[in-house]
Design goal:
Blueprint (H helix, E strand, L loop, with lengths): L1 H23 L4 H12 L7 H17 L3 H18 L7 H12 L3 H18 L5 H14 L3 H18 L5 H14 L3 H21 L1
Helix pairs in contact: 1-2, 2-3, 3-4, 4-5, 5-6, 5-7, 6-7, 7-8, 7-9, 8-9, 9-10
Length: 209
């Protein structure tokens, strides 16, 4: 009986940690860091999904503090854990985060590799709802390389799929992205329309959260 009680207590503690981890996203960066580091200090007793999330938070904290190398190291650890544990497409967010960081760092070849790896995971699992994430990242990479036509196709296709699958996460980024491409082509009216759509979708998204 004592063993059963111990296991139940352990599960309860892990559930509490997971709730704290989720809620920490709505807190100050110090609270996020404290929660994540607390989990990582005892990762052997935590589910892999929780450890992976904590590593991703560690990466985000480092990134916000301007420590790009530390952030990339942390997110690579999260990606490695994801690949070892499941490689499930719905848990592939560390790979999204790695690709985005590499894009921001202008490491375009490495970003391409991460983006195409994500594309293969989505394709093999037939997780069509995640295709907009892949197209969004690929669009930003194409834009960074100067491929305006390809970037716009990816952005427009991603936005259409977001509405089809009710995938709200990339929608603000896509409106901002299409505004950027319109500005680069000198189409101020279209850019203004994209910014207006961005402004309109933000209150809707805040209600979801």
């Amino acid at each position: 009986a004592s063993n059963s009680q111990g296991l139940a207590d352990g599960r309860a503690v892990r559930r509490t940690q997971l709730v704290r981890l989720a809620l920490s996203f709505f807190s100050q960066i110090e609270s996020v860091e404290t929660t994540a580091e607390g989990i990582l200090s005892d990762s052997a007793s935590c589910p892999a999904s929780m450890t992976m999330a904590a590593m991703s938070i560690r990466a985000t904290v480092s990134w916000r503090r301007g420590k790009a190398s530390d952030a990339l190291r942390a997110i690579e650890e999260s990606v490695d854990l994801w690949q070892r544990q499941s490689g499930d497409s719905f848990d592939s967010y560390p790979l999204w985060q790695k690709a985005w960081m590499l894009l921001r760092m202008q490491e375009l070849d490495a970003a391409d590799g991460a983006i195409e790896a994500l594309g293969r995971v989505i394709e093999s699992s037939r997780t069509e709802v995640l295709v907009p994430v892949y197209l969004s990242l690929r669009g930003w990479c194409r834009l960074a390389r100067g491929d305006m036509a390809g970037a716009e196709v990816d952005g427009s296709d991603a936005l259409s799929l977001c509405y089809r699958y009710r995938m709200q996460l990339p929608v603000p980024w896509l409106h901002a992205f299409l505004a950027c491409t319109a500005l680069r082509r000198g189409e101020l009216g279209l850019a203004s329309d994209c910014v207006q759509r961005l402004d309109e979708c933000l209150p809707h998204l805040s209600l979801i959260h």
